[in-house]
Each structure stands twice: as structure tokens, then as C-alpha cells.
Amino acid sequence: xxxxxxxxxxxxxxxxxxxxxxxxxxxxxxxxxxxxxxxxxxxxxxxxxxxxxxxxxxxxxxxxxxxxxxxxxxxxxxxxxxxxxxxxxxxxxxxxxxxxxxxxxxxxxxxxxxxxxxxxxxxxxxxxxxxxxxxxxxxxxxxxxxxxxxxxxxxxxxxxxxxxxxxxxxxxxxxxxxx
Length: 179
Prior knowledge:
By secondary structure, the chain is mainly α. The protein has helices spanning 17-30, 42-48, 53-69, 86-96, 101-106, 108-116, 125-140, 153-170; strands at 4-9, 35-40, 77-81. α2 (42-48) packs antiparallel against α7 and α7 (125-140) crosses α8.
């Protein structure tokens, strides 16, 4: 049985050469070795863009096309749009019960973005909750491996924390701890 990998993109515009060298090329290589899932995180785009939902929908379509155009095989890879999987909403709601407000605000990526954007205390609940959606993305596909950049490592650690808590509460190994 192949291990599962989850990777993805936040559709904030067209992908470019940097994306190819940084992630897309590796996805093409990994599609034969892993059961591969690619999330198009349009809900996350709502927290980072001042664009309209229509523009995000357009970017989402373009990013899907970009992924396929580099050689990802739709027979080997599952590409899904985050907002079109209602179970992600459900899991995010459940997972949010196990992450405190202070823990969410300690996330270094959240802290850095608040500072970088000069938000002070003027940010939405969706903004501080988007790491929980990333946890839901990861755990809903039971991803074993989640290749992330250093800026996303805190989200991956949060996924491991939530998996541990829920596995302990249930007395079962429901969710693998992603690496």
C-alpha cells in the first residue's frame, strides 16, 4: 500500500517558474511513488486576498490547469478544491475545539503575518483559523507526508498535535501523524 502525500496551493494568482522549481517538478516525480493529493486552498485565499470570490474561483481554475500542464496525471493524482469538500469544514470545526485561542496566536506564521501586514488586532477569525483548515486538509486525506516550506512547519506541527489528541481521546489510531 502506497503512503499518502498531501501538497497544495493557495490560488492567489497564476503559477510561475518559481513554483515549478520549488514544488511542481517534485510533485511530478512523487506521483508514481505516493498516493498523491493536491489541495487548492481557496478558503485560505479568502483570508489573504482582497480579491472577489469570482477572482479566487478564476485563480483556482488556473492553478488546477497549471498543475496538470506540468505533467501531473489525473489518473494518479487527486486534485481537489478545499471549499468543495464539506467534510473539511466539519473537521475544521471539530479540530478547532482542541486548539486554544492562545495556541492559534502563538503560531509563528500567524504572528509574522500580523506584524508584516500591520494588522494589530484587526484580523478576522478566519485569518487566525486558517491553520486549522490546513490541519483539516491534511488529516482528511490521512496524509503521511506533507512537504512544506519552513514557513509552514508550524502548521504541520499543529496537525501532529491534533492527530495525537484525537487518537488519544478515541483510543484508536484514526489519523497518522504527518511528517
